[in-house]
Amino acid sequence: MRDGGADALARFAKRRARELGFDAVGITRAAPSDHGEALERWLDGGLHGAMDYLARPDAVERRKDPRRSFEAARSVVVVAHHYGTGGEQDESPDRGIIARYARGRDYHKVVKGRLRALLAAMDEEARRLGWASGVAGRAYVDTGPLLERELGQRAGLGWFGRNTMLIDPKRGSYFVLGALLIDVALPADPPFEADRCGSCRACLDACPTGALLGRDADGAPVMDATRCISYLTIELRGPIPEELRAPMGNRVFGCDICQEVCPWNGGFAVAAADPAYAARGPGERPNGVEVSPDVTAVTHPGTDSPRLVDLMRMTREEWDAFSRGSPIRRAGYEGFRRNVAVALGNCTPRSS
Ligand code: B12
Ligand code: SF4
Ligand code: SF4
């Protein structure tokens, strides 16, 4: 690439990422993690529960160094995509609460598609700038063995809150992350070094299951995932431990409590939310998801304050239409019904 080409390409990538709808973008080196030991301590403590894919030795090694996923990687372009505060929903005990990120279209598909478009645009621009081999890369959104939040922190997008979320001081934490590993060395952005939590502990106090354990001696926020409602309702197969059922309340998929109480999630995120993530009414499919007409004819309760009884009455066919193109599908029909059964138990007055 000609002199100045890397700077020009980095500027182009950031402009293009914003045109593609990403809210924040930063660049970091494809270098080993600074926190590999923290990850190993977390796994050794069994705090990942049944998420065995996190503890597989090859996956751990890959998480500790992004170049193990893509050997040629020199830089990582990290993007944040906001799903917003979700607006007002009826959260009465007889309604199911679905986490904000999961009310609309599956973010894996939304973000990955746009990251691929970004890569194609960067490849074309690099060739225009005089680099004959262009840019090759790989797009990751959640499913690959990367420490995405650390990459985001290193690319300057935010800090690790006590709730373990990456928080952007301007836009809060209601966003998903995507990472594009590329084989070109671009100028890196400064990492986000400050910890803006200060003396706040609101998330620790609000977590109904005691899953947030605070910062360890090195300053890393620690979570016991086996107690987290998000884990219990999405990742766990089989019965939910009895003592954790009541604190789940009416959360039937994921949990946002430790973000709802965070002072950095003010009302500003609504405008930034991509329409792909909007909640949908009964029978509606997520924005941008095409289905065949026979599936369209099948109804379902939607994700905008659905009644628990309606969620429980869904047939397999209705579940299929309800979960199509949505992250909710990950729980599976049985897993989702298990969650709804717990929520129904919680909304039924107990006799003494
Ligand atoms: C496993 C997983 C979960 C698990 C465990 C969560 C956890 N806190 O570890 C469960 C199922 C509980 C979960 C829940 C949720 N998740 Co999740 N999850 C993941 C996944 C796949 C891996 C995370 C992981 O590796 N955890 C292990 C821990 C050790 O790693 P870590 O959280 O990155 O921790 C780092 C810090 O400890 C830091 N560290 C170490 N030492 C030090 C020292 C200092 C001083 C500091 C500051 C930091 C530090 O380094 C560690 C490693 O980098 C990522 C995607 C990915 N590939 O990264 C998404 C991801 C973290 N999840 C995400 C989301 C949106 C959620 C939910 C909000 C969904 C919901 N509404 O229900 C909840 C939030 C719960 C919460 N408070 O975290 C987003 C987070 C975006 C953001 N703004 O931070 C991610 C990045 C997915 C994505 N692509 O957008 N998740
Ligand atoms: S997502 Fe819910 S259960 Fe999990 S740590 Fe946050 S408040 Fe606790
Ligand atoms: S609620 Fe307070 S302690 Fe928790 S992440 Fe937000 S600012 Fe940090």
What features would you describe in this structure?
The chain is of the alpha+beta class. It has a domain at 5-34 and 52-87 and 102-182. It has helices at residues 5-19, 36-44, 52-55, 57-64, 107-128, 148-154, 202-206, 229-235, 242-248, 257-260, 269-272, 293-296, 308-313, 316-323, 332-347, and strands spanning 24-29, 75-82, 97-98, 137-140, 159-160, 166-167, 175-182, 212-215, 221-223, 251-253. The strands form 4 sheets. A 4-stranded antiparallel sheet has the order 1-2-7-4, sandwiched between helices. A two-stranded parallel ribbon has the order 3-10. A hairpin with a 5-residue loop joins strand 5 (159-160) and strand 6 (166-167). Helix 1 packs antiparallel against helix 5 (107-128). The mean pLDDT is 94. It binds cobalamin and iron/sulfur cluster (2 copies). Residues 163, 207, 209, 211-212, 223, 228-230, 255, 257-258 line the site of one iron/sulfur cluster (SF4).
